[in-house]
Amino acid sequence: MTAAVEFLNVSRHFGTVRAVDRVDLSIAEGSFFAMLGPSGSGKTTCLRLISGFEKPTAGTIRIFGEDMGEVPPNRRHVNTVFQDYALFPHMNVRDNVAYGLMVRGVDRRSRRDKAEEMLSLVKLDGFGDRKPAQLSGGQRQRVALARALVNEPRVLLLDEPLGALDLKLREAMQDELKALQRRLGITFVFVTHDQGEALSMADRVAVFNEGRIAQVGTPSEVYDRPATRFVADFVGSSNVLPPDLTRSFGGPECWASLRPEAIRFAPAAEARATGRVSALRYLGSGTRVALEAGGQEIAVLVPAGNPLPAVGDRAGLTWDSDALHLMEGA
User: Fold this and answer.
1) Tens-digit pLDDT profile for residues 61-84
2) How far apart are the C-alpha atoms of 255 and 305, rounded to whole Å?
3) What residue spans of 127-259 are helical by DSSP H?
4) Residue 256, domain extent
5) Which segments constitute the ABC transporter domain (predicted)?
6) Distance of CA 81 to the CA centre of its chain
7) Has this prediction a pTM greater than 0.85?
């Protein structure tokens, strides 16, 4: 099957800044693909390279097998949803959605019908005559989504589209975006710095760091089997153990990742390690217990309702053997 998007040794440099550096990437058609990383890691630049708003310094980008080297943005089968919505304040919702069709010369009646169809798709029936200022943030984001979909792109690019929404609305929109992607069957490429968004929505995740991809995999692969110390530390919360501590915990002398939720308290006779409790942090669904062990802080996530040690207590720790994930050469 032809990939929806391919990067072949792609770089984008701005003077001495290597925003994207020798990236190889293949995004499957019909998938929900997340680009995850901190600010400045290169993920948004990659999105702009796909859309054609940036040109690579080196390398090749293909969309459905076609080299995009000389293809302008308006001739690519992609469209973008931005975090700031970028709606026209003087136009009503229907005309905002239909704008791309107007630029293409589609007649007024067809534009109106298609815009109403898209508004129905994003659950905004009856909102066509309103202005953007009369909508909530979530509603404006839906209008931006409808406007991006009206031209029937084969790849939809989403640049931090939920970043301006509050937590409850953001979680609701995550579910709606995923359901919409499944319904339409087109490729979504979603840029975010939010690990929870990437893990809960994407079929596959690329973790970016300093212009390069540190790891690509399914959400469970990236979370359970991080390839590097950066991935282990950035994706979720992990105890990243240096080689000497890994060895003292019963593993080989290499870097390792041990997730807080995989650790349990145990009697001294059954413990793999011991530590002194230095802090307790209540999280609602559980409590994060910090311990000093082997010269390093170790975090343990205790589910709500379970007994807790007190600050200053000495506690034994244990975990299943496969919970200690080794990162050779990381």
Assistant:
1) 999 999 999 999 989 999 998 877
2) 33
3) 137-149, 167-184, 195-201, 219-224, 229-234, 243-248
4) 237-327
5) 5-235
6) 15
7) yes
